Amino acid sequence: MSKLRRTIAYIVEIVSCAVMIAIINSVSDRELASAIWLAFFAAFLFVNKYTRDSLGAVIRTLFQPAIYIPLGIAALYAYGEIFLLSYVGWWSVANLKTTILWLVTFAFVTMFEVATAKNRKAGLGKITREILSVAVFVTFIAELYSFPLIVELIALPFVTIVFVTAEYAKHRPEHASVAKLLSYLSGVIGFFYLGFSLIKSIELWRDTFTWENWLELVIPVILSVAFLPFLYAWRIYVAYDGVFTTISTFGVDKALIPYARWLSITRIRTDLDLLERWRKSIQSARPAKRAELKHTLTALLALKEREASPPTVPPKEGWSPYLAMQFLADVGVETGNYNHIYDDDWGASSQMRELGKGDGIWRNNLAYYVDGTQNAATVLKVKLNVNVTTDRIEAEDIFLVHAMHLLEKAVSLDAVERLKMQLASLKDFQADIPFGSVSLARENFVGGVIKDGYSRIFTLKRGG
Length: 464
What we know:
Keywords: Membrane, Transmembrane, Transmembrane helix. This protein is α+β, with helices and mostly antiparallel strands. Helices cover 64% and strands 12% of the residues.
């Protein structure tokens, strides 16, 4: 038996050495340089008392069940993908480094992106497009060959500073010129890395165009595509968890929560937009009984059917709310849903669209409002808030474009031709349109921290 144990131990040792050699050989000088700088950075964090305490808090946070359980489940799902690829002979230990990097930089990161995206459907679509984009191939080529280790060690801090600073400046309007310069420099650096790797790929084409390199390219893509069903399920779980966590804070009887879960699972299913709208309806209605809770969902389902087939609204009564919501879609303005507000009042509005560079604190903004009754929109408004008067000319030009576009869509092109001079003057006026009126008004800000600020409101009215 002792001889058998020694033989097994010897085989395990050989296999372990082979695994380690395969992993080491797969690490490029660029990745090694990154690891060295990361080790130095980690050492600095541990040496400094302040950062050591903060790092400890971050590590403790990562070991919360709400964090490590989803990540553990994702890792098990990824293991299933790897097992299937290994079964068909497409994955080996030589791909372990690439797989670990994929798990950390794609799987875990996209889980966070999906969970925090304001529009979860759009977030998942963005991830899918990125997986299948040309950028994946370009990145692979750029990473295929690296410079000598000493060059990578020197270049990495400089490149990192340029890219991080460029990204920071991009979100600071006052640094627009710096952002443009750094963006250009980032592009030059990227082309330099890509060009070097491309030239090496051509020179060493026998080493480049191999089955192993092909697998290194396609395995992350296959793993990413196969991970999409998990992300879809994760998106649904996060949405449901968020909704029922907030519902419990609305003052709704806790005894109704299980019934609400059952209604959502059986009636809403995977329609996350409908689920979010139901959450807002519950927050507004605050049902106290099962029948009231069910009515909030029944009314919402009926509203969604009406949205799918909007009823015709005679011009003398106003506009179809669902058509009015789309009047400014051509200029990039989207509204939320047309919802019940109070008594007989219904409405929808867009998000505030920020305009101009601002003064570092405030920026001008513009929004679109649709108000009316359940069956007809009777008031359409474009409202501009001028918070920074130095940027008012650009903001007012954009306001006029939106106002004229709304007038054309809601009334007619003839109305635009008739009223464009009055609109362009930006003076207050009121005029008639078929079955209603159109007006432009200025309202100065009174009090508050913004001096000399004002609003311009372009309003169309019918019916009501």
